[in-house]
Q: What sequence folds into this?
């Protein structure tokens, strides 16, 4: 099995584990107060962003591996743009949740 296939499996297992953990955490949400809920949501959004950064990094690595030292990923490629747009959206959502948390004191 090639390295990039192993990396894809690692990401898929991580996503599956995250879903299970989130499901369990969701059961406990009723126990948390509003501030705790906001902290949890921020943590979840940050985790999603980390996964997107990992996908972006994997894409760069795969390109380099396929094309050698001069290969690269162009920022105007649609799949790169999609990842960057998702990261930007998550960043905005994180900022909004952090602002709401500051308002709660």
A:
């Amino acid at each position: 099995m090639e390295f990039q296939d192993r990396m894809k499996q690692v990401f898929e297992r991580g996503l599956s584990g995250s879903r299970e953990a989130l499901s369990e955490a969701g059961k406990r949400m009723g126990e948390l107060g509003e501030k705790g809920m906001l902290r949890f949501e921020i943590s979840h959004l940050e985790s999603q962003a980390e996964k997107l950064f990992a996908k972006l990094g994997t894409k760069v690595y795969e390109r380099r591996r396929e094309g050698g030292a001069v290969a690269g990923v162009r920022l105007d490629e649609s799949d790169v743009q999609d990842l960057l747009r998702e990261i930007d959206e998550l960043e905005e959502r994180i900022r909004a949740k952090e602002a709401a948390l500051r308002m709660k004191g």
